[in-house]
Amino acid sequence: MRLVLEYDGGEFCGWQRQRGRRSVEAELCAALESLTGEPSLVCAAGRTDAGAHAEGQVVNFRYRGRLPLARLGSALNALLPPDLCVLSAEAVDPHFHARHLALRRVYRYSWCDRPARAVLGRERLFQVWRRLSEEAMAEAALALVGEHDWTTFCRARGSDGASPRARVRPIMAAELARTGDRVDLQLTGLGFLRGLIRGLAGELTEIGLGRREPGDLGRLIAARDRRLAPKPAPARGLTLVRVEYA
User: Fold this and answer.
1) Strand, helix or coil at 84?
2) Which residue segments constitute the domains of the chain, with CATH numbers given?
3) Fewer CB within 10 Å of terminal CB in the chain, N or C?
4) What is the pLDDT of residue 160?
5) CA 36 to centroid of chain Cα atoms
6) Contact 152/123 with Cβ under 8 angstroms?
7) Is the pTM of this model over 0.85?
């Protein structure tokens, strides 16, 4: 089975199950177990950070329940909390794997840059109190496209591994656009290392506020030195938009 999920990550510790904490994975598995009467193992296309959101997270699992597939999505939604929803549920080839077969993942990072605090949608925006230069940010973002070693901007150790090659990934597209007092960065890549997008968003914030030059982003990437990176941007501005497959 393949599910497409939407969730507000504000009250979750992230995708992955953690003892004593509320996670997206744990809530979904509890609902599945309630329907099937047995534990379910699920695999997600991406393990979103604590506080990050999803509009199109993809999950696969083996379904052994008796409920007709056409009713599975609505049945799960009746059991899931208000901040987690199944958008679609469909049968797929047993060999489908949400993470390994993904061709592209699309993420968006969003800022609000007005002097009055954001109210509507504030849980999905990083608010800065001065106007950002989207021109400088867009110029800097050109350096993101291509295959790079992201050591400067991602977490150096952990599940991504300590090998330098483990931190080399391609970004296929980087688009930055303004709509009113909102600025959005959309990144498309094969996969993103833990903390990478928030690290890049932190640097772009500094550039947008005029504290750093657009060319500094490319120089920091080339330096491959985590000590040079600015403070990461908060997770609330980050959303997994969609995952694409062949």
Assistant:
1) strand
2) 2-90 (3.30.70.580), 104-244 (3.30.70.660)
3) C
4) 46
5) 29
6) no
7) yes
